[in-house]
Amino acid sequence: MLTDLQLILTLFFILHFFSERIFAFLTKSRILSFKANIPPEVKGLMSMEKWEECSEYNLDKLKFGKWTDVFSLIYLPFILIVVFPLFYNSTFVSENPGTWQSAAYASCFLSFTQIPFWLIDWFRQFGIETKYGFNTNTQKNWISDKLKEFILSLLLMWILFSIILISYSWGAKIFANFWWVLAFFLYFSLQVLLMILWPKLILPLFNKLTPLEDDELRKKLFDLSESAGFKAKSIDVIDGSRRTRHSNAFFTGFGKFRRIVLFDTLLDQMDHDEVSAVLAHEIGHYRLGHIPKRMFLSFVLGISFFAFIGFVCSSSLFYNQLMLNHHNYGEIGPILIAFALAGSVLSYWFKPLSSFISRKSEFEADAFAVENVGGWASLSRALRKLYVENLNYPLPHPLVSSLFYSHPSLLERERAMKLTSLN
Questions:
Q1: Residue 255 has what pLDDT?
Q2: pLDDT for the residue 91
Q3: Total-model pTM
């Protein structure tokens, strides 16, 4: 028989599933209503053949998403309600494990529960993405990536859990009920360190980065960076085409580790002015302080979460509600795992706020780009190419877009850019 907490979490999983189905239905209905004829507002964006392909691609993604949601609805509650208490109540786990051992149990449990999602990713990569010509990956390389991801995530989670468990063990003796403050600051410091080391140590494990060879474009981009107040150490090209034909651009790292990274597919698809506009948009995120703002929000949410963890660990009620036996009372590892398993459906209800903040940042970065490249035309052309090449649907359902899209639609962005140009 389920406990009250297990029933509540199961209800959240069910609500999450039906919410996703409702929004998927709205999206599907909108795509089907426009499928036969290109709406006037996006006429000229793509040919009729491309429009039909774009519609089919997004319909197929919705269909695939339905089965992914069904799997998650069955699998995650089963792990949380059945497998999780069995694992932590077993003799070899629950009998006074040391700090390092407890961290190993937690990281292994969480890592191995993610393996079934590999199959979903495989079907997406070698099913839909291959069908529409986006997949350039090989099965051998895909398996290699997954193994590297698994080992890396296992190691990082073990380090993370170890830091939190040590903070809990030592901090409780010094700070009593405020051990979670020390744990959070160590956790947050590790996050910042990983952001710094990511471009140098982790990204090269999966992709090859090479300096931009086009002298004319490199000079143009460095000049733009300097004039926009973004002093980058290097402009690199990432071999994204090894795995996909989708394109992107981003900057990563801090200080001397800061890099501008362009997908090789992006360079193949766009002219110099369009690449410059995309880069100006990314620089806008940096210059307008979007990264520190996101980090501050993460800081506030993070310390609030750790404070809640501190409260939960001080009471046996939560352990009983998770069907954990008395050997686990006061252990923080099982509590962290429980939140990790239920995290996606709990954080889902905060996504509209996250989307609102992200969309606002995108509008601001667009405006910054328009001001720094002398107009909105080049960025508009770049966005239109990205939509066509990536088969992004340009007319999402307004409600779905406003609640769950991290980026505004193409038409919303163009309208805002035009207003920026006029002001």
A1: 59
A2: 67
A3: 0.88
Mean pLDDT by 10 residues, the chain (423 residues): 91 95 96 92 90 96 95 94 90 69 88 93 94 92 93 91 83 73 87 81 85 86 82 81 83 67 87 91 88 88 88 84 84 87 88 93 94 90 92 94 93 92 75
* Residues in CB range of 256: below 8 A, 6 or more apart: 233
What pLDDT is recorded for position 136? 92
Per DSSP bridges, beta strands 259-263 and 234-238 are parallel
At residue 343's C-alpha, the angle toward residues 339 and 349, to 5°, is: 135
State the residue for tokens 């051998």: 140
Report the alpha-carbon distance of residue 27 to residue 396 in Å, rounded.
7
